[in-house]
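Class, discuss our next protein.
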Amino acid sequence: LAGGLAILVTPFLTRTMIQAIDSPLPDPTWLVEDLITDGSRVLLFGEWGAFKSWLLADLACAIANGVPAWDGHQTRQRRVLYIDEEMGQRRLEHRIRAIVAGQGYEPTDTLTLASWQGVRFGTTGGHILLERLHAAKLNPDVIIIESVRTTMVGNENDAIDANIFWNSLLPITALGKTIILSHHMRKPKYLLHGQHEERTRDK
């Protein structure tokens, strides 16, 4: 127990050199063909204003629907949890509605939306999220998170804090779940004024 929280201990798996050479390699199980495999950690990084959030929301809808061609790539239908620690629920749902209408996706309960839930990834962040999902009776196959900056505990430029962040995700991927995160380059200083007011209006 850590602070009263039950910690999931994942097995320490090994293979010998002979096994690695002689055993056939399993084919990857594609979540998005040729791009994302089941049980992987994926980082979408780019400049502010490059429509990364729109891309991830569209990807969430595509995976929840199992569309045959997302930008030319086959997707497999999975249960998706979209956690947005940047946008309020109203704005997030407005965006999803626009994507569904524009892309012709079918509304489905295989996509669950959550906004401003205080998700943080410190040393035990992955375990805590799994406990919260269990309590909420949610068992997603894919978790999409906006964003690294809003969920990381510590300094993103500090190697130790970054290592803790990425390691905290391992208990989640150990269960075969895929984690997709966005990471934004910092906004230009001239755009930062009024950011708090925009967030307040979005509640």
